[in-house]
Structures are given as C-alpha cells and as structure tokens.
Amino acid sequence: MAGNDNEELFPEAFDKCEDGERELEQTGPKSDGEQICSICNNKLLGPRLLSCLHVFCLGCLEKIKRLVENGREMIVCPKCQQETYLGRKGVLGLSCDYISTNIQDMLAIISMAVVCTSCKTKEKAVSRCSDCAHFLCPNCDTAHQYMRCFENHKVVSFEVLKKAKEAVPIHKPVFCEFHITETMKFFCNTCSVTICNECVVVDHCAPDHHYERLSDAYERHKEHLQNLMGESKTKMAYCEDATNSLSNALAELQAQHDNAKGLINETFQSYKALLEKRKDDVLDELKELHSERELKIMEMFHVVEKSVERIEDASKFTQRLLEHGSPAEVLCLRQLVSTQLLNLINNTPKPDVNTTLEFVTDMDKFTAAIQATFGHFRKPESPVGTATTTPQQESPPPPSLSLVTNNVNCPPSSVTSSPVSMPSSYEGELALPPLLPLTSIQEYNLSALASLAEAPSQVSGAPSPTSSFSLSDLLCGDITSSTNAIKNLEALVKLGNVSLNEPGESGVSYPKIILPANPYKNPTTTRLFFDSFFGDLVNGAAGPAPLIGRGSPIDGIPPVLSPVNGASFPRSSPTAILSSANAATNSGMLPPVTYNVNRIGTKSAQAMQVRYKFGTLGPGKGQFNSPHGFCLGTEEDIIVADTNNHRIQVFEKCGSFKFQFGIPGKEEGQLWYPRKVAVMKASGKFVVCDRGNERSRMQIFTKNGHFIKKIAIRYIDIVAGLAVSSQGHIVAVDSVSPTVFVISDNGDLLSWFDCSDHMREPSDLAINGKEYFVCDFKGHCVVVFNENGSFLRRIGCENLTNFPNGIDISDAGDVLVGDSHGNRFHVAVFNRNGEAICEFECPYVKVSRCCGLKITSEGFIVTLAKNNHHVLVLNTLYIV
C-alpha cells in the first residue's frame, strides 16, 4: 500500500503516527510510506527490527542473512551497513516492530477491510476487544457483552477508534516467549527483561529478582529513552559542525596543495637554472681545455715540420757531397756534416700530447644531493586518525540476540502481503602493491619507444646485417654517456626500419605471453609476472618478447570519424585480445585467461589531433580548479562542473566562454564541490550533483542557470556517473556501493539495482535504449545491464581498456571507451556486441586523470583532464 493511499485511508491518526516515526527515521532512501519495506518495496510483512533500528520484512531479512566464520548468522543492514548477529532462532528471534503492526491493523480498520478473527463466519468486523486482541463481528460483539467468560473485557467499536485522539489507539498484547499463553505484565529490573505471571513464579522469583508492574516501570524507562534521544540529537549538531570543519579542512588542504605545488615548481625552475648555469660553465671549461690542447698540438705540428725540412736539407747536402766530392773534400767536411746529422737525429721531436678530455660525474652523489636538498614535506606532529569519537563515553557494542529479542513473541499482523526480496552485496577492493617509480633512464627510453610508436612504419623484407641489435642495447646505460646515447639513437633508427613478428613479414617469431589464469584472485602472482617482464625489459634485459612490434597501420581508417551519419566505425583487422575477452564475458567477471600483454594501441592506435584545448588553473572565467565532470548541452555546448571553484561553466565547442552559474555554499541553489552535471535534452535543464549538507545532493537548474529545486539522494555516497535517459529519467551510479539508481525529475526513486556482483568500482555511465553501460575502473572493462538490472555482457579487458574513466555511444551504436592510463588519452571503439573496431590515442598532450568522454555530431571527441585543469577537443584524423 503506497503512502498516499495510507494517508487517504487514515487522515488524522495516521498522520500523527507517521510524523512521529519520521522524526526517528531520517536515514536511508526516501520511500513512498513508512509501512514500505525498502528491500522489496512492498508493504511490511512481519516487520522485524535490526540492531540499528531499521525495519524490514521478515522474508526479506531471511534472504539477505549470511553465515560468518564462527558459524553464526549475520545480517548487514542495507541502509546503514551496521551488522546484526542472529541467535539460535535466526531471523525469527529479532524483535518485532509493534508500532508498524498496530498501524497496519488500524489502517485495516479505517478501510473496513478487516474480518472477524474471533469466529469462523468471516463476516466484517465492527469492533475490537482490547483484552483478547480480536476483531469482532456483530455476533461476537454481542457475545462479549453478555457471556461471563468475557466479563471485564473492554470492547471498542471501530467508530470510537476512528475518533480516538491517540495516534495509535490499538495495541496488541505482547506474549511471553516461554509461556506463550501468558502476556507480559511485569518488568524484572534485575534481568532488564519483561516477564509474565509464570516467569515470576518459575524464573524470576523474589527476593533474588526485583520486578515491578509494566505501568510502574514505564515512566522511568520512558524518561531514560527520551534523555538518550535528546543526547543523540545533540550529537547530530556535533556531526554537522564536524562536517563543516571537514569541508573547511578539505578547502584548506587544497590550498596547501596548490601552495606546495607552486613552491615545488618554483624550486624546480630555480634548480633547473642552476643546472643550466653549471652546464654552461662546464661547457666553457671544456672549450678552454680544448683550445689549449689544440694549440699545443698545432705547435707540435710546426716543430715536426721544421725538423723534417732540416733533415731533408742535410740529407741533400750529404748526398751531393758523397757523389761529387773528392776524398779530401769529404774528409774535410766530415766533422761538420756528422755533427749536424747527429744533432738532427738526437733532437727529433716526439709528438707526446694529451688528448684526453674525460668528463667525470657521479650520478649517485647527485641523486643523494637532490634528495637531501631539493626539499621534503614536514611531517605533522600528531598524525590524523581515520575517525575520532565525540568527547563522551563510548556507546556499547550492538546487543546480542538475547538482549535484542527481549524474550517476546511478535504477534502477526492481520494485514498480509507477498514480499519481494532484492538482496544486495558488496565486494571489497583488492589491495595491490604500490607501483615503483621509473628512473630517469627508464622514462627516457620509454618516451623514445612511445615516440617511435607514433611514427608510420615501413614494411621491409628482412633487416640488413647492419641492423642487428637487441633491445638491451636500446634500453640500457647512462643517458649522460655519449656512447650509449648514440647506441640508443642508432637502435631507435634500426627499430623504426624493421618489423617484428608481423604477419607476412620475415623476422623472429616470439611466443605469445600467457598471463595468470585469474589475476583478480591472485593479484600477487600477476604483479610478480608483470614486474619480471616489464621490469627486465625497461631496465635493459632481454624480455621474453619484444615490447613493441612495428608494422603497417590499420587499413580502412577514414580521415575523420563520422558516428552520426548512420554508419559504424570502420573495422580493423581482428585482434586476439578481444576475441579471448568476449569468450570470457558470459562466464563471470574475470578477464580472459590468455591475451597479449601489448595494448592494441601500441600497434594500431591512430593518432588524434588536438582541435581545441582550453582552460588553466585559476578562479577566473575559462579557468578551472580540479573539474570532475562535464557533459554536452542541447546545442553541444560543453558544460563543465568546476569542482573546487564551486560553479558550472558553459562553453561553445570551440572553447569560447558563454556563461557560468553557481555560488559557493551548502544552501539550496548554491553549489558545494559539484562533481557531475547532465542535461535534460527535452527541456535543457541542468542536473548538478554536489555535496551540500549531505554526502550527496542533486539540484535542478534552468537552461539559464536559475535554481529550480533540490532532490535529496542521501542513499548515494559518491556519484560516479550521471546520465539522463530518453524518457527523461535521471540515472546515477554510486561508486562506493556499486548501485544504479533511476530517479524521476520530481525526485521520486523509480527503481534501483545492485551491480556489485559484476563490477568493482564504477567510474562513468552511458545509456543506449534500454541498456546501461557502466565503466568498471578497477575491473578494466565496461559492464552492460538491462533496465531491470540483469547482467548482459562485458566489453573490453585489461591492457585494452585500462582503468576506463569515460564512455559514450555513437548514433550508430558504437561504444567509445576512454582512459588516460600512461598519461595519454586513449579511446577504444567497440560495436555493441563488444568486438573491437579500432583505437585512437592522442600523443601530443600529456594528461592526468581524464574524466568522462563525449562525442559530438562532427565526430570530435571531448574529454576533461582533471589534474591538468583543461578541456580537450580531439578529432580522429590519422596523420601519416
């Protein structure tokens, strides 16, 4: 029974009761009425209380209970996630919500839909006996008035009950758990439980037990509960203040981050200037040494040449003397000639020059000096804890079953319905070891490989003998060494002129890489595999297969992507990665067991040009501060959620600023860290998700930015994806507890479904017809559901759609999945069945944490670089 129907049937008394309960129940999703189970969305049937005081159907709780390690049963509340442990009776041992049961009976009385429960005639009841808790037909009502067995029974007609001033004028007797025919009449102060007459005689005898009548104990315990309720409400104010403090702390943290970042960049520029000056000084010193030693060598040249001339002249004179001179003449000149020749022989210059110009550097000392002097972060004196408690005594843990049940049986309601259960589950995240940073040598070599991957390849039959090299030659050595630098450059040239392991080309055949069968269940094994493979390769060792194979580009790629003219994206050659990925789609959430470690993009990704790039860090117009989301408007304007500037900015497709709206604040109509924005195509209204006073808030604005209304979405922790369906319904996905919610523009929760069994962390959302496409950031894929929440298929896999953070669907039905893994924006294109079509990558801009992906009518791809504070508009022209 819906809440509106209840109000019509029960105008005054029900309103009072409903208002009283609403004061206590301020958490969880908004329902149509307080008598509705939030699990099955039907009227409460056998309402049971959890330790968190949330109420659900008995049957629904039976379906969501789980077995824990020690053999006990446990229920995790779907609203607040608090755990409730069950006893030997299971769910039946939970306390009954008496108020809900009484309200349901009162609603039946108001609607005159209750029949007599005292006899078998099934006639409509006209009154109720307060002592035996039966509804009475006219005959039974007469019998209660005249028969002695019903003497002193209080019978109240329905008309009197309707006019009662009390919110709930009827109350069923509470029966003892151990003596099922006896009602609770006393309260044992020793055991803090309600007891019956038999319990007083058997188990709670005086003087060991002190007990009193329920009416006597009621006022004292009522006052105690009121005091606790008042104290808890003061904690709400404390939590609100704490929320404000945390929000201010977040803003202060961002300011500190920006200041530190600016100081780091300034320090780097200063040190860079010093390094450049030192480089210039060393080059000048090198020039001086070179000139000095060059001068010495030239002087030695001159000395040697003079010596050669003297020897030639002396030799000529001696030869002429020996040929034409008489013995007397020769002997007379012998002494002079001998002296000169001996002098020339003994004084022949020796070209002993120093040509060494060796530059000595110590990379280890330089690295240590940088680590010691560049700067560091001052550690706080007292580390900030993950959670703090208020300055009051801590509350006791949730009570055990014996204290929760209070030894009572719950009377069944006379109003019945069939509950429908919708259980939800949440799978925790896998904690992988942190990645180690790359060294400067590794970054240099990887950047060289990346730049090589962007250049068009040339098909060659077989490499020439001069092209013989290994990858270890390419990925080794000190980049400051001129010899190794030349070797690396030569290796890059050779790598660009050959083709490795391509079909139809000669060369070495490398084995296919076999990954661990289940990387999700054994992340350590998978991490060790990748560390051993990529680590050895990047650092210079010969890996089991080449990292990059070069070949001809994919045939059939058109100059411009045209997704809106009715044609699909052009298809490239089949890939082994997607064929194996599709084979594993229907078997579960695991990626394929065998596939190439190479992302297809290393071979076949086509380059995207930067058509427009706008936005810088700052608070001015056209500037951003960590924007988290964007969308395209009705005229394909780019609407950006400027998160840390607390506003929404609207731009034309070329990047020209149009207008902005939103002022910082938590009140309605204000914006507080807006994360996501969407547009209702029919009306042009903006849907903005920000934080406000709650964890999440949704607000509707006109197409001009004027506030319309607020939609409370307290049941969503963090909105990871936001879209508007063709019916005009708002669809949001929660990243904390992976769940998709469908909300009307009036704020009513139309439907929801839990998708945690099929994915780990949603990051974006797209809708195509009756299918929902949800990006799984940590699962490296896209999961597709129908509108009822049933799992359909999985698109993409690891190393093809690594950490996807954006998705859109073209008019032809092609699915575009974007990611910024490796600091380059990469787009993988699939058909609606999950088969790979082609890939695109933008090598011209280094990006960090791109958020979202949209495609325009011209085929331009739009994305938002959050950490770079700008918007990119890319086209898909393939540049040769």
From TrEMBL:
Residues 111-158, 171-214 form the B box-type domain. One of its GO terms (molecular function) is ubiquitin protein ligase activity. Residues 411-426 have a biased composition (Low complexity). NHL repeats lie at residues 613-654, 658-704. This is Uncharacterized protein. It comes from Cuerna arida. PROSITE patterns: NHL (PS51125), ZF_BBOX (PS50119), ZF_RING_1 (PS00518), ZF_RING_2 (PS50089). SMART domains: BBC, BBOX, RING. PANTHER family: BONUS, ISOFORM C-RELATED, MEIOTIC P26, ISOFORM F. Residues 377-426 are annotated as: Disordered. Residues 37-81 form the RING-type domain. Residues 211-292 form a coiled coil. It holds the Pfam family NHL. The keyword tRNA-binding does not apply. Keywords: Coiled coil, Metal-binding, Repeat, Zinc, Zinc-finger. One of its GO terms (cellular component) is nucleoplasm.
